[in-house]
Automatic annotation (TrEMBL):
Record keywords, A-Z: FAD, Flavoprotein, Oxidoreductase
Protein's name according to its UniProt entry: FAD/FMN-dependent dehydrogenase
GO molecular function: FAD binding; oxidoreductase activity
Domain (FAD-binding PCMH-type) ranges: 36-215
Entry similarity comment: Belongs to the FAD-binding oxidoreductase/transferase type 4 family.
Pfam families, A to Z: FAD-oxidase_C, FAD_binding_4
Length: 458
């Protein structure tokens, strides 16, 4: 338990309503998108950078660790609290300070929901391309912490490509700003890119300078339907090999088609082995040519190729895709989600590898993927109440990670390392690289107070 002295001081800093110490309240902050859980000493929700600084200094005085939390949607255990920590929730830091369309930058606080920012940008005919499937819940700060991706990554890149600068509270309570309003590069060491994806282990982000871009003048959405998921994977490779860069290139297999169809009734073909959702954007004059070329490539293998004829059709397709994760609860009560990523040319081999893992371990795996990026999300379905199933799932997850490394890929394309994938990190990186990671952590946080135990062990 937190001492009454600490609780009293926290309430003085942020107000009584923004401090949680009761057991039920703490339970709410003990979970994320994984099956892991923990219980913190308390939860504190600041509203300003100054309050964050005061909280950090107070925690240092009492030797208490801090675990940062956005919306808690992450899939790697990155926000799971330890028993000797306080959760610092950024849910109250939700200001959009500025949208500067002249310089293509927006300045926001970390608790801003991705979708809410998109809504405000759309009013000015701009947008922020990284939009993970959880964008209606996930925060910009969380996106920064995990270096989130999303369906548009193939053409536009991931979160790190759109962060121009950060305001960060360091573990010693000092505040620094990295980058700036419209810097395309950062003089000296690029601290911005070190902190993006660091999962709150190096500093607490209190302000984000994001790069925004004008909305495209036109877009077209297509659906390619296949008998087998392997056929869809070959079309992905063919499109990439042809030098075409769609905005999005998303894959869903038969299992996900049916579970999402049960929920959305979008009209996806239940008998299809897989579908590709393909979208292009740009100038109106370019649309027909791009659609024609992609259609010619897809139709060599696909049994059907369709172009959406209305905004309603487009919305139905994307509602299906974005509901994929939650929809599998109709089949089994639990799932383990992976985010292995391979070079695009190896995407068909990765699909074959996923199918082999499913067969070897006797598990059910649904596949949804940011296929253009080579980023796969195999969903292993199981019942967490069955301990034998849980053990099998963990073994299958390890096999998926090793398969990705064998294909020159990575164990994590966008969900981060957190607690879940920490044990696999030294399979991807050499001992020298791992020690470099530890030195970076120690240089920022020598006392290991910020999100301890996540990503690497000191």
């Amino acid at each position: 338990m937190l001492s009454q002295t600490v609780v009293k001081r926290l309430k003085e800093i942020v107000g009584e309503k923004n401090v949680v110490t009761d057991k039920v309240g703490l339970l709410t902050y003990g979970y994320d998108g994984t099956l892991l859980s923990g219980e913190a000493l308390g939860v504190v929700s600041p509203k300003t950078t100054e309050q964050v600084v005061e909280i950090v200094k107070l925690m240092n005085e009492h030797n208490i660790k801090l675990v940062p939390r956005g919306a808690g949607t992450n899939e790697s255990g990155g926000t799971i609290p330890s028993q000797d920590s306080v959760v610092i929730s950024f849910s109250k830091m939700t200001k959009i300070h500025e949208i500067d369309t002249e310089n293509f930058v927006a300045v926001v606080e970390p608790g801003v929901i991705n979708f809410d920012l998109q809504v405000e940008l759309e009013k000015k005919k701009f947008y922020f391309p990284p939009d993970p499937s959880s964008y209606k819940a996930s925060t910009i700060g969380g996106n920064v912490g995990e270096c989130s991706g999303g369906p548009k990554c193939f053409k536009y890149g991931v979160t790190r490509d759109y962060i121009l600068g950060l305001e960060v509270v360091l573990p010693n309570g000092q505040v620094i700003q990295t980058g700036g309003r419209n810097f395309q590069s950062e003089p000296g060491y690029d601290l911005t890119r070190i902190i993006v994806g660091a999962e709150g282990t190096l500093g607490l982000v209190t302000k984000v300078f994001v790069r925004i871009i004008p909305m495209p003048r036109a877009k077209k959405t297509m659906l390619a339907i296949y008998d087998k998921v392997e056929d869809a994977s070959r079309t992905v490779a063919d499109i990439v090999a042809a030098g075409i860069i769609p905005t999005t290139l998303e894959l869903m297999d038969n299992l996900l088609i049916n579970t999402t169809e049960d929920f959305t009734h979008a009209g996806l073909p239940r008998d299809a082995g897989a579908v590709l959702i393909i979208e292009v954007d740009g100038y109106p004059e370019d649309m027909d040519a791009q659609v024609k070329t992609i259609g010619e490539i897809a139709s060599k293998i696909a049994k059907e190729f369709k172009v959406a004829q209305s905004a309603i059709e487009v919305d139905q397709v994307w509602t299906s895709r974005r509901s994929a994760f939650g929809s599998v609860a109709r089949v089994r009560p639990s799932y383990g989600v992976n985010d292995i990523t391979v070079p695009r040319s190896n995407f068909p081999k990765a699909i074959e590898g996923v199918l082999k893992v499913a067969k070897d371990f006797g598990v059910t795996i649904g596949v949804v993927a940011h296929a253009g990026d080579g980023n796969l999300h195999p969903l292993i379905l199981f019942d967490q109440r069955n301990k034998e199933e849980v053990e099998t799932v963990h073994a299958a997850e390890q096999a998926l990670c090793m398969m990705a490394l064998d294909l020159d890929g990575t164990i994590s394309g966008e969900h981060g390392i957190g607690l879940v994938k920490k044990k696999y990190l030294d399979s991807e990186f050499s001992p020298i690289a791992m020690e470099a990671f530890r030195k970076v952590k120690r240089s920022f946080d020598p006392s290991n107070r910020f999100n301890p135990g996540k990503v690497i062990e000191l």
